[in-house]
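Um, can you check?
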Amino acid sequence: MQLLKRMAALLLVTVILGGCTGKPDNIEPVTNFDLNKYLGTWYEIARLDHSFERGLSNIQATYRLKSDGTVSVVNRGWNTEEKQWAQAVGKAKFVTTSDIAHLKVSFFGPFYGSYVVFYLADDYSLALVTSYNKDYFWMLSRTKTISKDKLDHALEIAQKAGFDTSKFIYPKQTDNPLL
């Protein structure tokens, strides 16, 4: 529970201070985006460090379309210290149009943060995501692990986009988080 409170507080401060539905310079969201192909569960392969994810393994995000046209967002990870799942539930909306992968996500009422998919594999198996600035980065996959070739390709794209890939964290993804 403590971790969820920290996650909520950090995201709230980030949103308030950042204005946060913009995107970093030189980052462009994917166009011809198909939300229906993006929906479902994604596994976190790599990220930049943030206190709201520290101590978590088996991190995943699940996106579902709601009847009102918004997207339900459920982020969860296994808290290795507390030996329990930590979860944050939010909603997402498109910033402009539904064919541009630039959304705004809220976990706290009217406060939104930017969610920019700037790379997406043709088969929707791998995504690179940032927020309103380059302090945020996530590499997401439909599978818990990816091949070295796929990882190297994603790291090259991230580096060309201006991310310091030497600072990436690779959370553990296992079938049994107790191991």
